[in-house]
């Protein structure tokens, strides 16, 4: 039997759906690269009383991520809506359960990126992306943003930053991805997949 394909884990939280739409677009970019798959996973909301209030399997959409999803990925895209210029608590909560992988150096040298969604144009897209970058660096991952060779970065009137793709979702979180945002999210997924494949094969090669 042939080995399973390596995969890029697209791990996101979305309350109103904007970040979920972006995650799907990123997956399309990943799957435009031959030899690698996208695996979409989400995280449950956290309760103010710290009780488990959600069923183990969500009613719709991506299933919840496990540490094994993260352990075995060839690359990682972290996605979160902006919450006061920062990543959302449910995603941070999951990230804070990854000490075991950090101690084992499991994610060292794997490529990673981040994406976000905001209601206002200058509402903290870059800071949110950087808030997600920080734990990725602690894990020893290789961060891949978006290069300006993606010409939509200069042209966009909505989201899109060199730190990663972003989306202006509007006050009701219902503004669809515009053409530049679609292009940039796809390009980011494809780039991450390319890097993941290259580093994955190199990790198996003799030093
Ligand atoms: C508690 C909270 C804080 C937020 N903080 C910001 C913010 O700092 N800047 C901003 O532009 N939007 C902010 N928003 C709006 C969300 O980032 C925005 O609606 C996002 O598109 C939601 O993504 P989702 O549809 O994937 O849940 C906030 C929303 C909530 C509920």
TrEMBL record:
Pfam families in the record: FMN_red
One function term, GO molecular function aspect: NAD(P)H dehydrogenase (quinone) activity
Domain of life (superkingdom): Bacteria
Residue ranges occupied by any Flavodoxin-like domain in the UniProt entry: 8-192
Record keyword Flavoprotein present: yes
SUPFAM superfamilies: Flavoproteins
GO cellular component: membrane
Keyword tags: Flavoprotein, FMN
Family the UniProt entry places it in: Belongs to the WrbA family.
PANTHER family, A to Z: FLAVODOXIN-RELATED PROTEIN WRBA-RELATED, FLAVOPROTEIN-LIKE PROTEIN YCP4-RELATED
Protein name as catalogued: Trp repressor binding protein
Organism: Halomonas beimenensis
